[in-house]
Amino acid sequence: MGGVLPPAALRATGLVKEYRRGRAVDGVDLTVGPGERVALLGPNGAGKTTTLLMCLGAVTPDDGTVEILGHRLPRERSHAMAKVGFGAGYLPLPERMRVIEYLRMFGRLAGLRRPDRAAREALERFGIPHLAGAMGTEMSSGQKTLVGIAKAVLHRPRLLVLDEPTASLDPDVALRVRTGLREISAEQGTALLVTSHNMVEVERLCERVVFLSAGRVVADGTAAEIIERFGRSDLEDVFLHLAHLRDRQQVST
Amino acid sequence: MSETYRGAALSFWRVMAIVRRHAYVLQRSPHRAFDVVVWPAVDVVLFGTIGIFASTRTGGGAQVALYLLVGVVLWHVVYQAQISLATGFLEETWSRSVLSLFVTSMREWEYVAGVALFGLVKLVLGVGTVALIAWLAYAFSITSLGFGLLPVAALLLAVGWAIALFVIGLVLRFGSGAEALAWGILFAVMPLSGTFYPVSSLPGVLRPIGELLPTTHAFAAGRAFAQGEALPWHELGLATAGTVVLLLLSLAYLGWMLRIFRARGYVTRYS
Predict the structure, then answer these.
(1) Comparing B146 with B223, which gets the higher pLDDT?
(2) Does the N-terminal or the C-terminal CB of chain B have fewer CB atoms within 10 Å?
(3) Helices and strands per DSSP (H, E), number in chain B
(4) Into how many domains does chain A fold?
């Protein structure tokens, strides 16, 4: 019996973005399958965040297309984003809102009928139910990051995009985040697209790694495949190798 | 000769370093011209014209007072509508929430509607405060004028929103540097709109500009009604037409700025 294949969680083709300072993204193709956990890696300035923002519809590509779960951006942005969760370690929480109020607002924006229940479940999952009544100003940066991730998963998204999710977390809390994300992916079939500078974390969390350098995809595969292809000892070594290559290119130009 | 200044010369060059630092800011922030050029111009036109208007009303002090009180109450309709919508969006920039909101499924009009709706609450509080003080301190009851002022207030509300949409477009395009306009732009319009006097009292060179503004005709209609005359429908018609044009222009401008905002990746300014 032939079934219809579910659409990719994310299919970005030929993305190009040029800013005044130069070309930030130069023909990136990026596909994330349903339930797949993918890491987007690369040195600073490689084009990771610009790529993510184009995939999320917050930045319009100069060229290329983005499709999320079969919905083409920007035309069907609202439908597409209803199935996407986004969190970033660098995004602050509003200072004059309590955590539960903040999560309730985003639950409502996602169309949840019972946002409070979803909020409490999300806080529970990441071990921070006690922060429900806290104000944004009363929390550490790590706690804010956890709340941001809880916000991203509130509405059971089918694609979860996280930019540097564990940048400000200690190893114990980072482990809790990884565990929570793996559970969500396994239980709900949520696809993950994560950027990180923590290579160990990437190896533990993601099944596939896409390396960007100077706005281009320079490697795409499992961590083991990429390590082997570049003849390096681990992902961190690959990362350093690509960063040095980029620095040399910048000096020569 | 020493490599560094000493004594008075040292202080002088330190002072000049600070002067130059602020000169750079002024030179590269055109919106700061509001403080040094626009405000003084607004003040002189506003108070000069009030003076001219009052001096030409022989024995008409009560009329001047009525114009001022009606003007200030109606002014707060347009002001509160504009400021609540514009600062509602600015709140997202201050709290760096723009990116978080941009990547939800919410549509742009839903966001604007939410902020504008809450703005109505602030408007009721603001106008209510002005009306209460006018009643307690000057025995001027806006409610005694009846419901005839409602269409005037509705038009001023729409003008306030239209200007706020324009300001949001400016902030999207030019960043938080354009914030000053959120507070300032309407005050530049106030003296030209004949808020406290008929535009015939304005200096001749400014009258044609005043006649073009929908607020001018709305205030004129409000004043006529407050004096016990029938609602001047021709003024209301002009105000309505002007408001519709202003709203359409503001929406088009906002849409244009939003496209630039996405195309140039300005969302990263707020993350």
Answers:
(1) B223
(2) N
(3) 11, 0
(4) 1
Query: For residue range A76-116, what is the model confidence (pLDDT) as tens digits?
Result: 999 999 999 999 888 888 888 999 999 999 999 999 999 99
Contacts of B214 (CB under 8 A, 6+ apart): B155, B159, B238, B239, B240, B241, B242, B243, B245, B246
Residue in A81, A94, A110 closest to B97 by CB? A94
- Structural domain for A116, as ranges: 10-252
- Tell me the average pLDDT across A6-28: 92
Q: Which residue has the higher pLDDT, A27 or B37?
A: A27
Structure tokens at B100: 């978080």
Specify the CATH number for the domain of residue A202. 3.40.50.300
Site from B97, B98, B100 to mutate, A interface, most A CB atoms within 10 angstroms: B100
Q: Would A24 be classed as within a structural domain?
A: yes
Residue A3: inside a domain: no
Nearest to B271 among A91, A96, A106 (CB): A91
For residue B34, give the DSSP letter.
Answer: I
Q: Does the distance separating the beta carbons of A92 and B95 come in below 8 Å?
A: yes
Alpha carbon distance A94, B88 (integer Å): 13
